[in-house]
Write a structure and sequence with these properties.
Elements (H helix, E strand, L loop, with lengths): L40 H5 L3 H23 L1 H13 L4 H5 L11 H14 L3 E8 L13 H9 L2 E8 L4 E9 L6 H17 L3 E5 L6 H22 L1
Parallel strand pairs: 3-4
Antiparallel strand pairs: 1-2, 2-3
Helix pairs in contact: 5-8
Length: 235
């Protein structure tokens, strides 16, 4: 099949063979558009990288700040900073304090009187004694300071001591509704374990409006006999 010759504008006929340009004519390269690159996941997400990072950091910062405010940590730190800045003199330091009306609450006083009648005159009752004044951590114990801190801030309600020597023979805890909280139960567990390890009997009595002296005496006698038997076996 023959191809008809091309007709040029103006009536001329284009040559059918290859055309040779004169030496004075220079060929000019034509810029072709780049080929489209295939889309990747990273390429699609690249514009969103920094917004995602900054948004995540803001969420974490808000969560941490809310926890600090909820637990009162921020408030406690602020109070410490204020306390460091405020230097109180001796007169200012002592001015807010006053003497309490009594060492025991009315409920504790009622039980104290019953306990005194149940133990008799041969024994002395000491109220509100620090647990670290009753038991101590053995020397050479690993993490000795940590064990001491567990008992240093805890107290027991009453300690029954032998006459003038004040040797502790039993501990009495008056358990009211406050002992039902989770924090109080953990503190009671520490007291129980420490006193048991030290061989000091612990008697727990539920708080009530009235107490029977004979019942309290019988409960104490049972614990004191058990303590005496344990002491004889140990010796």
């Amino acid at each position: 099949m023959l191809t008809p010759p091309l007709t040029l504008r103006g009536g001329g006929v284009a040559p059918s063979g290859p055309v040779r340009l004169p030496d004075s004519v220079t060929a000019t390269a034509v810029d072709m558009p780049p080929e489209p690159q295939p889309h990747t996941v990273f390429g699609l997400l690249e514009p969103l990288f920094w917004p995602i990072v900054l948004g995540s950091a803001a969420v974490v910062a808000i969560s941490v700040a809310s926890k600090l405010l909820t637990k009162g940590t921020f408030a406690a730190c602020w109070q410490r900073l204020r306390g460091r800045r405020e230097r109180l003199g001796p007169s200012q330091f002592l001015s807010p304090y006053q003497q309490k009306e009594a060492l025991l609450t009315p409920a504790e006083q009622r039980f104290y009187e019953t306990l005194a009648g149940a133990t008799g005159e041969r024994r002395t009752i000491c109220p509100k004694v620090r647990l670290a004044d009753l038991v101590e951590v053995r020397r050479g114990t690993p993490s000795r300071t940590a064990y001491f801190r567990r008992i240093s801030q805890k107290h027991v309600d009453f300690v029954i001591c032998e006459g003038p020597s004040l040797v502790p023979v039993a501990v009495v805890e008056l358990d009211d509704a406050s002992h039902n909280s989770t924090r109080a139960r953990k503190a009671d567990a520490v007291k129980n374990a420490a006193l048991e390890a030290a061989g000091l009997p612990l008697v727990r009595i539920r708080a009530a409006r009235q107490y029977d002296t004979a019942t309290v005496r019988a409960t104490l006698s049972k614990s004191l006999r058990a303590s005496a038997d344990t002491g004889r076996h140990a010796s």
